[in-house]
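Morning. Coffee machine broken again, so started the prediction first thing and wrote up yesterday's gels while waiting. Chain of 409 residues, entered below exactly as on the submission form.
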Amino acid sequence: MPRRVLVLLTLLVLAVHAWVLVGLPLGGGQDRGAPVRMAFHTRTVAPPPPPEPPAAPPPAEAAPTPAPTPPAAAAQPRPRPAPVRKPAPPAPAPSMPVAQEAPPMPPGEASATAETPAADTTAMASAGTAVPEGAASETATAPEQTASAASSPASAAAASPTAAASSPTDSAQDSSAGVDIRPPGAGANTASTTPPPARLPDPVRLEFEVSGQAKKFNYRASAELLWRHDGARYEARQEIKAFLIGARSQTSTGQVTASGLQPERFGDKARSEQAAHFNFGQGRVTFSANTPQAAIGAGAQDRLSVFIQLGALLAAASERYPDGTQITLTTVGARYADRWTFTVEGTEMLDLPRGATPALKLQRLPRKEYDQKAELWLAPSLGFLPARIRITQSNGDFADLRLSANAPP
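Came back before lunch.
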């Protein structure tokens, strides 16, 4: 393009811009300025105050606080568990037959108290000790019952299962009585507060052969009775052992008095030991098994010392106990106390593993349906210590301990 033409175009553009820039302020700048200022003052001063009152609606928004009503609705579902309670009424119905089935079971225990029957019925053909394991031993196998059945000569005369010291029976009421000796054909005598005279046998070790039956299971075992005293104190220990079954022992310790034995502690141990502690000063006996305390009187014995004490009474004055005489005294086990009565039956000749031995038979007959029958033979040649003991249960189970040897302790 020619240079001249470019110069003209440039000048033309500059002229147009100059006209625009200079002409705009003159065209409306002053006329529009005043009205704009007036409009600004009127709009900024008056209008702002009125919009503030509408701020009141926020309290209106607080109205939504009734929202708590939904929780009330949520609470309504709670009554729904009520229908679940409806099955409760039928529940008592089945419980009735269960309660009716319970009565037939106690006959197996035959006791007014739960503790006493458990101890005696589980003893089976045992020498009558209160079994420490209680009812648990009722489910024992035949071998376990065998160990219990042969428990000891010292426990031969089992206590009546229905006469626990804690029960309101006559045994609980008269367990604090002394020794009652009733001549043949005589009525009931008043129990003596002072036991009759006694003469203790010399220390000795007795060995027994044991045979018996427990729930149709025949068994054999061996037993030993160790008797020691020094004139002031005594110790008696009886233990029975059965092959592949184990051992069970009973111990009795206490003082020697002019009236014979005065026990202080009786222990019965199979898996664990339970014990009875005598306090003649307070006239009470306590039990480690936490069974109720029992009252005792002068002449009370435990289930091991009673056999030695009976022999000591006969040794001191055998003429005082003719055939038919009844001797009653309190006998304490590991769980309770009871009154035992022995009747003098007469002298018999025993055929024992040790040899022919004359012995005086005493018998404890069952007082009630589920009591044990105990037969005891005391040999004068042994200072009236037991030469044979036989226990028979109400179900026919039995344990028979027969003297096989005797030796110094």
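The first strand starts at residue 180 and ends at 182. Going to sketch it on the whiteboard this afternoon.
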